[in-house]
Design a protein that fits this description.
CATH architecture: Alpha-Beta Barrel
Strand order of the largest sheet: 3-4-5-6-7-8-9-10
Number of domains: 1
CATH topology: TIM Barrel
CATH class: Alpha Beta
């Protein structure tokens, strides 16, 4: 019997849910591309609020289950990054516990994991010197490497506020790379995700900023495994990718254009480190399996239909995409509540959440449509919309 829900609003009506995508819940690790899904944290609905976003407000069991599901599907986990509300609810003290738990769980599976490091142990209430920023980065790199993780050097709001020239960025990053034991991944996060990162790498001119990044990578390639680009500019990503030294990967963070970028062309491809893959993990895994089998057309056929959902999740204001990730996780049955740490569940309005539901259902994202319909209806009723 078909399962349906009534959607309120001028463009609403009865929506009949389609069947689940039917892809496996377990897959072999991907081999043709490195692929990481940036995972979110699940709030404890009893304790999470805008005022309370610490360790006691996190449902650790559900948070780890989500990471285990990503690993089961053959993808790696990108931990403690912006999808995990780093800088929007998750503080460094609590990120340490998250990193510990995830690396421990991944170690027992020999699972692929990279970990975001930043400078967010510095106080937000006052400026920091370049030396203090360097020390903060090094402290977090050491924390991650001592536990067997590979650091991703996330862009620093403190560095963006303090640095006045490209050389300031180069000096800080070179000092951090010198202190790191093994190769790290750089991360260039665009202003769509965080307006406080304007002028990163020393210039608002992205061409000039790219030259600074390439200068760093070419001079320090032995310590750089790759760079994640989150500029939502596919042409710029391809241009940068073609200039990287041999052995340095480009991990796409372009949640609008990842299909073409991962598929690549005759001159190369991007690997993946995506928040989008946290929402569509089984579909992404099935698509990557087609690439592994030498079937790029099959890869596109499976993954292309996911782009409208991803573009909606990451629609402006893009920094609130984490709300959509948690909402789809809740509707899909991976967490018991739609509460988020720091009160970020209010980051999107209900109309947007409804649009996400419809877009996700169109690609068969929900593996238990009856549960999804029940949860959606209950949420609408709680807001007086049924």
């Amino acid at each position: 019997m078909p399962i349906s829900v009534t959607i309120p609003g001028a463009n609403g009506g009865v929506h009949v849910l389609r069947e689940s995508h039917g892809y496996p819940s377990v897959s072999a690790p991907t081999v043709s591309r490195e692929a990481f899904a940036a995972a979110h944290v699940v709030a404890d609905p009893l304790t999470a609020s805008m005022a309370d976003s610490g360790a006691d407000s996190i449902d650790w069991e559900a948070t780890l289950r989500i990471r285990e599901r990503i690993w089961d599907l053959g993808l790696g986990v990108a931990e403690a990054m912006d999808t995990a509300q780093r800088g929007m609810g998750l503080q460094w003290a609590d990120a340490q516990q998250l990193i510990d738990l995830t690396l421990s769980a991944g170690r027992s599976r020999n699972a692929a994991t990279v970990v975001g490091v930043s400078t967010d142990q510095l106080p937000e209430s006052r400026p920091a010197t370049l030396a203090q920023i360097t020390e903060a980065y090094v402290e977090q790199v050491e924390f991650v490497e001592q536990r067997g993780g590979r650091p991703v050097l996330m862009a620093s709001r403190w560095l963006a506020a303090t640095a006045s020239t490209a050389d300031d960025y180069l000096d800080v990053y070179r000092a951090v790379l010198a202190a790191a034991c093994g190769p790290v991944v750089l991360h260039w996060l665009g202003v769509a995700f965080d307006a406080r990162l304007a002028g990163y790498w020393g210039s608002d001119d992205l061409d000039e900023a790219a030259r600074t990044v390439l200068d760093l990578i070419k001079s320090e390639s032995a310590k750089i495994a790759g760079i994640k680009i989150s500029l939502l500019d596919a042409a710029r990503e391809v241009e940068l990718r073609r200039q990287l030294p041999a052995g340095v990967k480009l991990y796409t963070g372009d949640d609008f254009n990842y299909v073409d970028l991962i598929a690549g062309d005759e001159l190369g491809h991007s690997d993946a480190l995506l928040g989008a893959f946290a929402t569509i993990t089984p579909i992404a895994a099935a698509a990557l399996a087609r690439l592994d089998a030498g079937d790029p057309a099959g890869f596109r056929q499976i993954l292309q239909p996911t782009l409208p959902l991803s573009r909606l999740v990451f629609a402006a204001p893009t920094q609130y995409y984490k709300t959509g990730v948690a909402w789809l996780s809740y509707l899909g049955g991976d967490q018991r509540s739609f509460r988020m740490i720091g009160g970020l569940d209010s980051g999107r309005n209900i109309q947007h959440l409804l649009d996400l539901f419809v877009a996700a259902d169109r690609i068969g994202l929900f593996r238990d449509p009856a549960l999804t319909a029940h949860r959606l209806t209950a949420h609408l009723a709680a807001h007086g919309l049924v």
